[in-house]
Amino acid sequence: MDYVNVGSTGLKVSRICLGCLSFGLAERRWGLSEDESRPIIKRAIEGGINFFDTANTYGDGGSEQVLGRAVHDYARRDEVVIATKVYYPMRADPNGRGLSRKAIMAEVEASLRRLNTDYIDLYQIHRWDDATPIEETLDSLHDVVKSGKARYIGASSMAAWQFCKALQLAGKHRWTRFVSMQPHYNLLYREEEREMLPLCESEGVGVFPWSPLAGGRLARPWQEEPDTLRGRTDELSAGNYAGTQEADNIVVDRLTSLSQTRCLPHAQLALAWLLSKPVVTAPIVGVTKPQHLEDAFAAVGVKLSEDEVKLLEAPYVPHPVSGL
Predict the structure, then answer these.
(1) pLDDT on residue 239
(2) What mean pLDDT comes out for the span 282-301?
(3) Which helix (H) or strand (E) holds 197?
(4) Does residue 167 contact residue 178 with C-beta atoms inside 8 Å?
(5) Degrees, nearest 5: CA angle 84-284-13
(6) What are the distances in angstroms from CA 291 to CA 209, 220, 268?
(7) Which of 181, 200, 196, 189 is nearest to 284 (CA)?
(8) Strand 17-19 and strand 206-207: pairing?
């Protein structure tokens, strides 16, 4: 496993981040039980992955609990980097969601309890909150860091102007600055190349793409049926690529051709393409089968030539903005 710094910080993470969305996710049919999740987390640690991404809302906190117990059993806490998020509803009352000071202070404590730890390495806002001034959110996150409950803060999908505003305000007020961004980015969805990724590169912000395999669409020829329950039933993922299937199929055809030429699985090549981008720190790879994790390990060692990168990128056409 290779390790890189997160943006301009000294924090080092593995080139693959294990996404923990499916762990303890009983309310979705494709979610894994704790017994099914633990061997995957253990194998990730054994293979050199030190970076784990979850969120308070995943499984209504179940994912954090599963991850926290597994880390306690399989690793030393200071040797792993745990990232979690806050924003989406956790309770039905008006203050049970969002990025107000009240919500952040309540949810960071709840995440710490579920993760069974006294600090979070990377505490991230899951989305932009139109109902809360960003100044209130940044001031609150700054206090979370200064209290020792988080080491760094990060953000996830939003408009580039919003992220730029947050970075500027943090500098102006000497608040803790976002060190990372989680964008929707893969071979089928490259709209973040227009503004967000150049902004992150310019500002020294680490980039952790989510959905690096486009919900499984980059893991097989497009003519084949999904081989996982999630691929057949995840309506949220399907909505991110609605209306662009014809154009996307051409990209997948190129990936299939390269897969046959290189004798490598689609997933390894799609991840290798992301890893070839200097701005990308570590893709967040969701795993529901052991082979998914092995493909992610192998992708770190796959190097694409400039011609191969051009082959994969050439058919891309602009897509409607999604994932925000």
Answers:
(1) 65
(2) 95
(3) helix 196-203
(4) yes
(5) 75
(6) 20, 14, 11
(7) 181
(8) unpaired
- Tell me, what DSSP letter sits at residue 23? B
Token representation of residue 258: 């390269």
* Pairing of the two strands 206-207 and 3-5: unpaired
End-to-end CA distance of the chain: 31
Quote the pLDDT of residue 232: 52
What is the 3 state secondary structure string of 57-126? CHHHHHHHHHHHHHHHHHCCHHHCEEEEEECCCCCCCCCCCCCCHHHHHHHHHHHHHHHCCCCEEEEEEC
The closest alpha carbon to 290, from 27, 28, 32, belongs to 32
> Could you give all domains of the chain from N- to C-terminal order, each with its CATH number?
3-313 (3.20.20.100)
Catalytic positions: 58
E strand or H helix at 238, and its extent? helix 235-239
pLDDT of residue 51: 98
